[in-house]
Design goal:
Immunoglobulin-like, mainly beta, 0% helix, three-stranded antiparallel β-sheet
Length: 131
């Protein structure tokens, strides 16, 4: 039996449309607010249709030299063009990107994960230095 971590896929976000891209500064001041943006399909567009879409993005922080990681955000995308008129006929469709603001007290690693309804779980990470 596989562990859940073995189900996550990763690749170069410039070539693969499912990889979450974490955009934020490489360093931040301790206790100061900064913005983090996570986008799916920034370089290679990911569909957002009733049949093929990103359901959610989760963002975590793993402080350096600590065992426990902390969830920063859980973003769910609920509108995929569905409608009583049929697939992709709906009046709204959610784009798969999210921005959050956070304050860190220690250096560590940000982890972004997403779920595609067809291609499963994807992840990426970015180290951040806190001064």
């Amino acid at each position: 039996m596989k562990r859940i971590g073995e189900l996550f896929q990763t690749s170069d976000w410039k070539k693969e449309k499912h990889v979450p891209l974490i955009e934020c500064p490489d360093s931040a001041s301790s206790g100061s607010l900064f913005d983090i943006k996570v986008t799916i399909g920034k370089e290679v567009s990911h569909p957002h249709t009733t049949e093929h879409h990103i359901r959610w993005i989760q963002l975590f922080f793993q402080p350096q030299d600590e065992k426990v990681c902390y969830q920063i955000a859980n973003i769910e995308f609920s509108a995929h063009g569905e409608s009583t008129a049929g697939p992709n006929e709906g009046p709204v469709n959610t784009y798969h990107a999210a921005s959050v603001s956070a304050m860190l007290k220690k250096s560590g690693t940000l982890y972004a994960m997403c779920f595609c309804n067809i291609h499963g779980l994807w992840e990426s990470s970015k180290e951040i230095t806190v001064q």
